[in-house]
Design goal:
Chain lengths: 184, 104
């Protein structure tokens, strides 16, 4: 019996996309858009730009679905994280300096105005310091603190081993602690 | 002190704010994809067939093209001996003239 559409795994959907199925593409996009948006947002700090990144990445996949090769023994999400990260890094190189979004809504409504302001300042400072980190340290931090991505997954995305990833995270945190002294 | 700073940094990193994604982003991407043609991966054999299809001629065209090709093949294969014959004729005439001169 044929598998129902929502039960198809990513590899099955990708095989269908390679045969031109727009229904499979729509399902794959629906399934993964949010997680790749979250990652893109951490790089570009703008909703519009992050949505554009994700759209570009998916449209590239649709245009040339044979870029994805199932036989290379990599999970689709691992490969696609890499695609999104590369797009974001290219975007950042062209669009320096990073425009931090100071109008970002504060979600926790239980905080007082002072606390909210302090929290906002901390976030702005944190994003500036992360944006100034070397590329690989920044990617390690962005991937490791992404929900739903294990450290091993993050290492796979960066095509490095787990120890190398942990070392990058450690160095990044040392720099962050140093530069965010007044907020910690 | 250092532990406290580590914890604070951990919590800052875990609580990084991300604006909510537009609920229609996935739909927008799918709709946009419908306007983008897919690149087809074709084999060498298919690409050769397509190449020959580009040069497809009607029947009289094949006759004409075959005649031209045949003509060219025959032309290139013609022995270059004709010039030798001319040279031979020229030599004979020269020797006759030379013979006449000898009598004078």
């Amino acid at each position: 019996m044929a598998t129902a559409w929502p039960d198809k795994d990513d590899n099955e959907l990708l095989a269908l996309i390679q045969d031109g199925s727009s229904q499979a593409f729509a399902l794959l996009v629906e399934r993964h858009t949010e997680r790749f948006y979250r990652l893109a947002y951490r790089y570009v700090q703008s909703k519009e730009a992050a949505e554009d990144m994700v759209q570009d990445a998916f449209l590239k996949l649709w245009e040339d679905p044979h870029r994805w090769q199932a036989d290379k023994n990599t999970k689709f999400t691992t490969w696609f994280y890499r695609v999104v990260v590369n797009l974001c890094l290219d975007w950042q190189k062209k669009k320096q300096p990073l425009a931090l979004n100071e109008d970002m809504p504060i979600i926790d409504e239980r905080e007082s105005a002072d606390e909210a302001m302090q929290r906002k300042q901390q976030q702005i400072a944190l994003e500036s310091v992360i944006a100034a980190l070397p590329e690989r340290q920044r990617t390690a931090i962005n991937l490791c603190y992404d929900e739903g991505l294990s450290n091993q997954d993050a290492a796979d995305v960066m095509a490095i081993n787990l120890k190398a990833l942990q070392s990058l995270v450690m160095r990044a945190k040392t720099t962050l602690k140093e530069r965010l002294k007044s907020y910690l | 002190m250092s532990d406290h700073r580590d914890e604070k940094l951990e919590s800052l990193l875990r609580d990084r704010r991300v604006e909510a994604v537009s609920p229609d982003l996935a739909t927008r991407i799918s709709l946009k994809a419908q306007t983008v043609p897919q690149i087809q991966n074709i084999s060498l054999w298919q690409s050769l067939r397509q190449l020959f299809a580009e040069f497809h001629l009607p029947k009289p065209g094949y006759v004409l093209a075959s005649a031209l090709v045949l003509g060219m093949v025959l032309g290139f294969n013609t022995s270059p001996d004709s010039s030798t014959i001319q040279d031979a004729n020229y030599t004979t005439t020269q020797s006759m003239i030379a013979g006449d001169e000898g009598f004078l």
